[in-house]
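Bench notes, afternoon.
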Amino acid sequence: MTQWIAAASKCVRRGVSAQAARAAHLQPSARQVAPAARWTRAFSSTPHPSESFMTGTNNAYVEEMYSSWKTDPQSVHKSWDVYFRQIESGSVPGEAFIPPPTIQAGVTPVRSVGGAPSLDQNDALGLSYLIRAYQVRGHEAANLDPLGLQERPDLPELDIKMYGFSEKDLDRVVAIPKNLCVLVSVCATYLFPMCSLFSSGVSGFLEELADGTNTMTLGQIIQRLKETYCSSIGVQYMHMLDREQCNWIRAKMEHLVKGEDSKEKRLHILERLSFSVVFERFLGNKYNTTKRFGLDGAESLIPGLKFMIDRGTELGMEHLVIGMPHRGRLNVLSNVIRKPIQQIFKEFQGTHIDVESYNQADVEDWSNSGDVKYHLGTSYDRAYPDGRLVHLSLVANPSHLEAVDPVVVGKVRAKQFYLGNDDEAEKKVMPLLLHGDAAFSGQGVVYETMHLSGLENYDTGGTVHVVVNNQIGFTTDPKNSRSSQYCTDLGKAMDVPILHVNGDDPVSVVKVFEFAAEWRQKWRSDVIINLTCYRRFGHNEVDNPFFTQPLMYKKIGQMKSVLDTYVDQQVAAGVASKEECDAVVQKVWDFFQTTFDETENWEDTKKSDWLAHRWESFKSPNQQSRIRPTGVHMDVLNHVGQKISTVTPGFKVNRQLERIMAAKKDMVETGEGVDWGTAEALAWGTLLLEGNHVRISGQDVERGTFSHRHAVLHHQDTNEEYVPLNNLATKTLPSAPLEYTTPGGGTIPDTQAE
């Protein structure tokens, strides 16, 4: 598509009236200055195609811009400043303004004969827009599909001919002079107003090419652009509004190809990939007629997740809460969360529960969910050799796709609250959600949950979303399951980066997952990974996929395992010999075999697969909870009642609310006619005084659906908010117990209502 080019062309054809409305400094001067003779000559003839805005209908506007510029060059936009300077230097019509080659196809700017830009400057301008084209649309030409079934479009924006270059220019050094950056920024503002590369804070290739030391030829530059934006990784970020974030992503991605992973890391990837692949092979070998919803075809997910966790802990993460569907869940439980593999084997064998024992009243409790093995969750504390510790928690999941998303985000928010409810707490607790491609684009709960991410009382500091894109939804092809180009296009509405990666390239997968951890910890924002892979078997292992996708599964039948492909690559690169790689794989297989042999006599010391620790207040069905008195002293009720019926001096409330609050005060003092809103406020207030956190959530919880609550008051002149329940006592230190003594004695913790 050439939508962005067409938009720029339209902008130029209309002049820059739209830019004038957007830029405050484009204001015409009140004083009129007679136009120069050259202006009369320019308007009296047909304008050159490069200056299509120089038409008679625009003469008054252009003359006003010119008169303003003559008075103060800084009073007009840079585009006019550059244009008028070229006119003053003697440029003939067609020379003064040089549009990007993409604005009007087939129009070649007039070559300079005097002060107009030189050939080198025109080349630099073309190169600038070639680079930008790769940044904007390179992901569409990236090698993302391991099956090779997706047709990659032929993008004219990535053709050097569109920018005035030819094949003979590939061996020529093309640099961007620093003094051309202002001229380039003129066109960049038209084409990419959201995330201008040429404004202050420039980063990436153009920063290198403009530093005066560039020796790269055009061919070398194009090769590096292809390696960065069109290899196994594709990145979408040009839709984002924050220029600083765009620059950070650009610098990260464009330097990612420079660094080579060490031999140690390559072998570490091999080991982790082996555990992922061999796990599925082993289960398929032992239980070949049992559903397991395996990760076959997407096994690189496991090393990606593990390296992401490693990087996250290096950046301050201490808790990871995970939500995911059934596909690949057993692999994640075993190789990421480290659920005992013996227990997984017992679940396949049906011997993991002693039913007779569980029927006994003295052991019956909530520790067994009774759900299928690929719905279960668990948790684990992982310690690193250097002392880092991370708590990994996988939330139990139903068959209802994506229903776990708000549960995970809510659990993270709760953890963060009790860890201090501050920026440091956000950094310590990270949510991770795994999705299927069809579910991510099709289930409304995904959109709803992501829309909570920027709200004050729901923000968790960003969620890492990993879409395991096996290019099919049960039996539905992508073309029949969504209208968007990618299943991850939802991220564009949320203003977050989207990283696409080929699942058959484990090294690239690891880089992308580490990148996601770095993004989340730095910017506290969502990030989406589109792990493009495939499903080696049907919807489950006993399903026949040839009924509905015969061509896809013919191709899949010819695919080598990602592990075999990775081993071949490491041998070819000299990282390790074939024998060394095979020894790693065999060692992993032997581990699973030994564990399998131990399963019969293995006893689960943890007993529960979804509770990390016994919850002291969690009662089993046969236990009775102690009946507790819930009443409070009248003095406490009077104190709360007085606080909820008064405001600070000078706070202007609505007149109708003044009468309502006076009525509340009368209810408390007399004890008669207490309405629902007053009663619940008294209940919440006493809970707060006892140190309990009270959180009421919903669209109209502040006022109350029937205008009965009014828990949050609004100043009628400033819209400032006042929450009476948050002012039950005079606060001292932000997180210290309050030194407020109730009539009944004791201290009031520093708590807050939401």
